[in-house]
Design goal:
Blueprint lengths: L9 H11 L15 E5 L3 E2 L4 E9 L7 E10 L2 E12 L4 H10 L3 H4 L19 H20 L9 E9 L13 E11 L5 E12 L8 H5 L4 E10 L29 H10 L4 E4 L9 H13 L6 E4 L1 E6 L9 H5 L6 E7 L27 H10 L3 E4 L25 E6 L8 H11 L5 E5 L11 E7 L4 H9 L3 E4 L3 E8 L2 E3 L4 E3 L8 E23 L6 E5 L3 E12 L6 E9 L5 E4 L2 E4 L6 E3 L12 E6 L9 E8 L4 E7 L2 E6 L2 E5 L4 E7 L11 E6 H7 L10 E9 L7 E3 L2 E5 L3
Parallel strand pairs: 2-8, 9-10, 10-11, 14-15, 15-16, 21-27
Antiparallel strand pairs: 1-3, 3-6, 4-5, 4-7, 7-8, 9-17, 12-13, 13-14, 17-18, 18-26, 19-20, 19-22, 22-23, 22-24, 22-25, 25-26, 25-27, 28-38, 29-30, 30-35, 31-34, 31-36, 32-33, 36-37, 36-38
Helix pairs in contact: 2-4
């Protein structure tokens, strides 16, 4: 329930004076004549494009404004950009003290990318323990005071951004070796209050990484319509800035630590293009987006930069209350003085704004008399009701992680859709967020793996989402592929897993409901890789719900270039299981994680299982049951097949046991002996060749005929349609299978 009254957060407000005078060490910014410059520029690039960049400029003088007159950008001493400026900056040391405290916070709290300090003394220790909480509250108090003191939209402030273009084709050549670097120097020209001219410079190293590998060649051969698209699912923009937010957003005081670099959606587009990515989702905090109108503006901005080569989607990072038993605590609990235990999730694929706090001071904290946030279960339901899919953010993070491990469910309950297994710039091995994901899988949750940079400033190189898109690259096909788990997470190698079962190949991310009982079957797990110019190893894991850990099926020898590895296994017959793969380069600096291929234990009743054979016309026929199979009912139980070829005929077959057998270029989903019912015309359009045909048969009439004396109440049957496909090499099409139980 939302409460906007001041009393709802009176506890945090009342303790601020005590915190401000506490023993938390005061941080003093280093003395400097003239303005302080902090660059928000890419430090690694993969494509030679023109990048929209910026430097943050701050005037720390106690009194007296300065006038900015120009900016130069040089690469290895060569001038590549020059701007004339006419802009004033007031003088105020308060911002410098605040920024210095932010730089001393742990990285997972401050969301800073990089180690370099621009405001704090490099020798000053990082805040720890209670010092983190005390520093955060002092920062929040200072940011609130600066919001009251300055008119940012009028340019009345001691700091601001200077935007400029960085032409990468004037820094590197296309044939430069990966690892080639250039030294950028940004020089700001200014005039002091006394009329004296000055200049301040900042240097930054820029490294050429070269293009990433594409789809592995051996995979592309059999998937001619697939293309690979890299992107970021966790991006914060200037709409969530606490000081100087971009219009029409108001300053988000709740996002206290976002006080320096931030970009518009359009500016971020060029940065992601420079990193070899062609999509991202804008996920500003729910407590920073205060109205439907504000969210509509962000949605319009995302649509405006979307074209045939780039997609931007407007989503939200949603704050919610934890629920149920808690597994530990984090710094987020301390920030709200333990009035709130909250988590963050990506609300993806939504159609409208979802409430999650407000942009006021501590707007994500519950108070004594009201709740700022909804429970995470309600938030998930709201996302799902909009047709969206929720992703748990930074589950093992130091702030606003997921402590409600027991009550957090997955796709098996139409709850969480996935987990952010890579958050920020580094992640290798099977620990951290990856371990949390695997633990959830072992506990029976069905969850996909995704990643997000969680940038609050410029874009940067990280283990991004590599999405395999079928058909045209557009927002619809991209989001469909992301939802389906056709994603591997990587900062280097390409890695794709698939599994052969029966006569079918099951793609990465697919979920396959298994019949009951699960028949014994052999699987072939195939992993395609591409290490580019490097080398590395591939590991294949097998997981089973209820086990304490995954088992390792394969650790390859050192591999180079592009290819695939295979391992054979027996299908797990006792519980839900999965296969996934991991790759790591020889240097240990790059890694990749596939999404699993899932085999899901059924819960009984009538349901489809197995895999249909794709027809010669590219159609996938599906079987379904309508009604109730019964020994005595006069009502029908139709076994239907849709998306079959028109003007042909089909035959319904069934069996007393399921199976997965290669058969006529597809999979026979039935065990022997087979029972044949009857031939049925497909019908459909009278002319032309398409997939408008339908097969249908009332199985209750077959039961009533008494032709199969073995049929009885409580018996489980398995059915499948065969139909004529004249252009197929085997001349036949096959639907998937259907399991059902005969009632009295």
């Amino acid at each position: 329930m939302r409460s906007s009254t001041l009393l709802s957060r009176c506890l945090p407000l009342l303790v601020l004076p005590a915190l401000a005078s506490s023993s938390a060490p005061r941080t003093v910014a280093p003395l400097q004549s003239g303005p302080i410059i902090r660059p928000f520029i890419l430090d690694e690039v993969r494509e030679l494009v023109v990048v929209q960049s910026q430097v943050f400029v701050y005037n720390p003088a106690l009194r007296g404004e300065i006038q900015l007159t120009g900016l130069d950008v040089r690469a290895d001493g060569v001038l590549i950009e020059r701007l004339d400026l006419d802009r004033r900056l007031l003088g105020d040391p308060e911002y410098g003290r605040t920024a210095a405290m932010i730089e001393r916070l742990p990285h997972e709290v401050a969301h800073r990318h990089g180690e370099k300090r621009y405001f704090a003394d490099p020798r000053a220790p990082e805040f720890t323990g209670d010092g983190v909480r005390e520093a955060l509250h002092e920062i929040q108090h200072s940011v609130g005071a600066m919001n009251d003191r300055y008119d940012f939209y009028a340019g009345d402030a001691p700091f601001g951004h200077v935007d400029f273009l960085l032409p990468l084709d004037q820094v590197f050549f296309p044939d430069d070796q990966a690892g080639t670097s250039a030294e950028l120097r940004v020089t700001l020209h200014w005039v002091g209050a006394n009329g004296q001219k000055g200049r301040s410079s900042i240097d930054q190293k820029l490294t050429w990484l070269g293009p990433l590998p594409g789809l592995p060649t051996s995979f592309s051969t059999g998937n001619s319509t697939a293309s690979l698209h890299r992107g970021d699912m966790h991006v914060h923009t200037c709409h969530g800035e606490s000081l100087g937010a971009c219009a029409p957003s108001s300053n988000c005081v709740a996002e206290t630590l976002q006080v320096s670099g931030s970009y518009t959606l359009d500016q971020l587009k060029t940065q992601y293009q420079a990193l070899g990515m062609d999509w991202y989702t804008a996920t500003d905090h729910s407590y920073c987006i205060n109205s439907d109108a504000e969210y509509s503006v962000i949605t319009a901005e995302a649509a405006a930069i979307t074209d045939s080569s780039f997609v931007c989607v407007s989503d939200i990072e949603l704050s919610s209350d934890e629920e149920g038993p808690q597994d530990g605590s984090d710094a987020g609990d301390a920030i709200c003085l333990w009035t709130t235990s909250a988590n963050h999730m990506g609300a993806h694929g939504i159609t409208s704004r979802i409430y999650g706090g407000d942009d006021g001071f501590l707007g994500f904290c519950d108070g004594l008399f009201g709740d700022a946030l909804n429970g995470f279960k309600q938030s998930i339901s709201t996302i799902r009701a909009q047709g969206g899919y929720p992703v748990a953010h930074h589950p093992a993070g130091g702030t606003f992680s997921w402590e409600s491990r027991q009550d957090a469910l997955g796709m098996e309950a139409n709850a969480l859709h996935g987990v952010e297994i890579w958050n920020g710039s580094t992640q290798t091995g099977q620990g951290g967020h990856v371990k949390d994901w695997v633990d959830w899988l072992l506990g029976g949750r069905l969850l996909y793996a995704y990643s997000g940079s969680d940038t609050h400033d410029q874009a940067y190189n990280f283990g991004c989402n590599n999405v395999i898109v079928e058909g045209a690259f557009d927002s619809v096909n991209l989001q469909q592929a992301i939802r389906a788990g056709a994603v591997f997470v990587s900062n280097g190698p390409s890695l794709i897993i698939e599994t052969d079962l029966g006569g079918s190949t099951l793609p990465m991310g697919s979920l396959h409901t298994l019949p009951s009982p699960i028949p014994p079957a052999t699987t072939t797990v195939r992993v395609y890789y591409d290490f580019g110019a490097g080398s590395g190893t591939v590991t294949v894991f097998r997981g089973v719900v209820g086990d304490v850990a995954e088992s390792t099926l394969l650790v390859s020898s050192t591999l180079s270039g592009s290819g695939f590895v295979e391992v054979f296994d027996s299908l797990e017959t006792s519980a839900t299981s999965w296969y996934r793969a991991y790759a790591e380069n020889t240097a240990g600096s790059q890694s990749a994680y596939t999404n699993p291929v899932f085999f899901v234990e059924s819960s009984g009743g009538t349901f489809a299982y197995c895999t249909a054979k794709v027809s010669s016309r590219g159609c996938v026929p599906t079987i379904s049951g309508v009604g109730t199979p019964s020994m005595s009912s006069t009502s029908p139980f139709f076994l239907n097949a849709n998306q079959v070829h028109n003007n042909q005929f089909g035959i319904l077959v069934y069996a007393y046991a399921p199976d997965f057998k290669p058969f006529m270029g597809g999979t026979l989903c039935l065990g022997f002996p087979l029972k044949r019912v009857t031939a049925v015309a497909t019908g459909g359009n009278g002319t032309g060749q398409d997939c408008s045909g339908v097969l249908s048969y009332d199985f209750n009439t077959w039961i009533a005929s008494g032709k199969d004396k073995g049929l009885a109440s409580g018996l489980t049957l398995y059915a499948q349609w065969w139909y004529r496909d004249g252009q197929d090499a085997f001349g036949a099409g096959l639907t998937d299978g259907l399991q059902f139980i005969i009632q009295p």
